[in-house]
Amino acid sequence: MSTIKLQLNIGTKTLPNPVGVASGTFGYGSEYEKLIGLEHLGGLYTKAVTLEPRPGNGIPRIIETPSGMLNSIGLANVGLDAFVRTKLPYFKTLKCPVIVNVAGSSADEYLRLVEALEEFDEVWGYEINLSCPNVKKGCLAFGSDPAQVETLTASLRSRTAKPLIIKLTPNVTSIGSIARGAEQGGADAVSCINTLLGMVIDIRKKRPVLQNMTGGLSGPAIRPVGVAAVYNVARSVKIPVIGIGGIMTASDAIEYLLAGASAVQVGTGTFVDPGIPEKILSGIETYMKEEGLADMGSFHRFIT
Ligand SMILES: Cc1cc2nc3c(=O)[nH]c(=O)nc-3n(C[C@H](O)[C@H](O)[C@H](O)COP(=O)(O)O)c2cc1C
Predict the structure, then answer these.
(1) Measured from the CB, is residue 48 less than 6 Å from ligand 1?
(2) C-alpha distances in angstroms, 72 versus 27, 52, 62, 99, 109?
(3) Run of H or E residues at 244
(4) Cis peptide before 193 (omega within 30 of 0)
(5) Can you list the residues of the chain whose pLDDT is less than 50?
(6) What is the C-alpha separation between 221 and 1, in angstroms, rounded?
(7) Where in the sequence is the domain holding 117, given as residue range(s)?
(8) Contact 170 CB / ligand 1 (< 6 Å)
(9) Is 207 within the bounds of a domain?
(10) Considering 73, 79, 95, 135, which has the largest number of Cβ atoms within 10 A of its Cβ?
């Protein structure tokens, strides 16, 4: 009998396994229900929901780049009311934890979203997307100031006892100090990284390819940046770290776990093969058996 423990605690709840799917790359789950067994996911992180519906940015809003892709979707989503009416009922049918990714352009928007979602048991927890510009503070991303992160996290904490995961942007000078702000505000975990700021230019049109000019870089190209961010963040906080960025295989995920992550999310990888999360989970289990690792914490003793 295997003694391997794949579950991990986030706040007062337990994720069944360490492999989830990243926000914005997996819709609301229903899009993938015929392709994979959603019950095997260690967390379904939804597309960001905002207070009002958003059409998102104009096209083109995606372009392939070397070992990655650049997107400027612009948080296109149906908005809170339609999310509650049309998306939440489906989550009730799912056996995996559903973590709602929340985005806003002011602190008040984040708070109103969490308050409105609190009553629904199908919402397992929240992932707070801090890559959004704070319109009231000169459009600087929420996630670029530790004090702002601490204040927002503390306000959110006072409104929910569900798992509160703060998602960090890598487009900052010191990601470790931002993570500490989240921890001090009462976050249960941090996830990192969101996409890296990038630009692609069409040299004949002499124009950026994306209508929004810049976008977020994801995919294998960003994996070493993500692994280094997790290494840094895991040494800055005591709460669990969820690693994201360019994970395509079990070995990619294991790099994150060895760097200090307790769980991972697969994003762009599922565009290539929706079955990747299940393959990664089974690869992690095999590795743990081969290496004599008992639980998700046991990865952390090797790299100090
Ligand atoms: C098309 C697309 C849409 C995304 N939308 C969101 C989003 O709504 N909220 C969020 O927090 N992150 C969003 N992300 C970021 C991913 O969740 C993830 O952090 C990032 O892509 C890095 O992981 P990856 O390299 O495995 O894709 C999006 C990424 C992509 C590619």
Answers:
(1) yes
(2) 16, 18, 7, 22, 21
(3) strand 241-244
(4) yes
(5) none
(6) 39
(7) 8-56+75-199+218-301
(8) no
(9) no
(10) 73
Residue 104 belongs to some domain of the structure: yes
- List Cβ neighbours of 138 (8 Å cut-off, separation of 6 or more): none
Question: For residues 233 and 219, is the Cβ–Cβ distance under 8 A?
Answer: no
CA 200 – ligand 1 centroid, Å = 18
- What total of structural domains would you count in the chain? 1
Distance 270 CA to ligand 1 centre (A): 11
Amino acid at 23: S
Cα 79 from Cα 117, distance rounded (Å)? 12
Is 101 a pocket residue for ligand 1 (Cβ < 6 Å)? Answer: yes
Between β-strands 125-129 and 98-102, what pairing exists: parallel, antiparallel or unpaired? parallel
Instruction: Give the number of the atom of ligand 1 that is nearest the alpha carbon of residue 45.
Output: 17
Q: What is the pLDDT of residue 2?
A: 61
Active site residues: 132
**Cα–Cα distance between 223 and 209 in angstroms, integer?**
23
Q: Closest Cα to residue 275, out of 18, 21, 4, 8? A: 21
Of all protein residues, the one whose alpha carbon is nearest to atom 6 of ligand 1 is: 24
From CA 74, how far away is CA 216, in angstroms rounded?
10
Contact present, 115 and 159 (Cβ < 8 Å): yes
Closest residue by CA, ligand 1 atom 10: 23
What's the whole-model pTM score? 0.98
Q: Which atom of ligand 1 is nearest to the CA of 47?
A: 8
CB 69 within 8 A of CB 219: yes
